[in-house]
Specification:
single chain, mainly alpha, transmembrane helix
Length: 88
């Protein structure tokens, strides 16, 4: 039975999310913004590691769109935090 790169990527992202949740539970701090940022870092690393150099499979292209949306959402979170700091 052959395991594909897609399966490895999904398993890696799932394992990364479990590790993040475990550390958040140990620290007794559950913050969706921190979880999102750490998840985005993991997704960006996994995309970079699984991206072949000369071809672009459909899975990688879709993952890059997901990562781009995550980066935009990250920018919105940063702008909200800056606005909170300026308003106080």
């Amino acid at each position: 039975m052959h395991i594909t790169t897609r399966a490895y990527s999904v398993c890696a992202i799932f394992l990364w999310m479990i590790i993040i949740l475990a550390f958040m539970a140990l620290a007794q701090v559950v913050n969706i913004e921190i979880f999102f940022v750490l998840w985005l870092i993991g997704v960006l690393v996994i995309i970079e590691l699984t991206d072949p150099p000369f071809i672009e499979p459909r899975m990688i292209r879709s993952a890059k769109y997901l990562a781009a949306g995550g980066v935009i959402l990250f920018g919105i979170i940063v702008l909200q935090k800056i606005m909170e700091i300026i308003s106080s």
